[in-house]
């Protein structure tokens, strides 16, 4: 009976699989170390520092939005809503139609 694996050329022909596996383990470990380092740097902020940064970013965003609205003129949401009712026929809303 023949083996299902192909013959590997030369002595120690299967060693490259081991090298590839070792390289992948080293890569995963290096990625984990980089992730842990960035996590430590992120957690280095105190809650007061985070709060101050959020407040300043919110103030900047509010200022930009106010400037944008001022440059575009008064906001118009279109025509005023009509008091004459809906354009749909009665009973056409989901779940209100008569079923056979």
Compose a concise summary of this entry.
This protein has 100 residues and is mainly α. The protein has two helices and no strands.
The residue-averaged pLDDT reads 75
- Cα(first) to Cα(last) distance is 70 Å
Uncertain runs with pLDDT below 50, 5 residues or more?
none
Order of helices and strands: HH
Q: Count the helices. How many?
A: 2
Radius of gyration: 33 Å
What's the number of extended β-strand segments? Answer: 0
Strand content: under 5%
Question: How would you characterize the overall build of this protein?
Answer:
It contains two helices and no strands. It has 100 residues and is mainly alpha-helical. It has helices at 15-42, 47-72.
Task: Please tag this protein with its features.
100 residues; mainly alpha; 2 helices; 0% strand
Helices and strands in order:
Elements: H1 15-42, H2 47-72
């Amino acid at each position: 009976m023949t083996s299902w694996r192909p013959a590997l050329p030369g002595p120690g022909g299967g060693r490259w699989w081991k090298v590839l596996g070792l390289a992948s383990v080293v890569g995963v470990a290096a990625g984990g170390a980089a992730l842990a380092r960035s996590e430590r740097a992120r957690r280095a902020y105190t809650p007061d520092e985070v709060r101050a940064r959020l407040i300043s970013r919110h103030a900047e965003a509010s200022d930009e939005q106010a400037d944008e609205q001022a440059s575009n003129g008064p906001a118009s949401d279109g025509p005023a809503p009509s008091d004459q009712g809906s354009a749909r026929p009665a009973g056409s809303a989901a779940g209100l139609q008569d079923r056979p």
